[in-house]
Amino acid sequence: MSYGRGYGGGGSRDFNRDFAPKPVEVGKEYDVDVTEISRQGDGIARVQGFVVFVKNGKVGQKVKIHINQVGNRFATAAIVA
Prior knowledge:
Layout: E1 29-33, E2 36-37, E3 43-47, E4 50-55, E5 62-70, E6 74-79
Parallel strand pairs: 4-6
Antiparallel strand pairs: 1-5, 2-3, 3-4, 5-6
């Protein structure tokens, strides 16, 4: 007897989260604080909790960024000169 859940389905792990509107948009600029460094060496900032990887960002910088790409779980950006 089945109750609507198959094997290996992963459960209901915030399924709708991936479709929620993102707080950043491609092509727009935002003022952020770089708070961490990624494993690849880019800076990490957050906009309303949403992770943004900042190319050449350094911890402690307060910078204006330009969003290049937005994915389901993070965005990538470059520092505006």
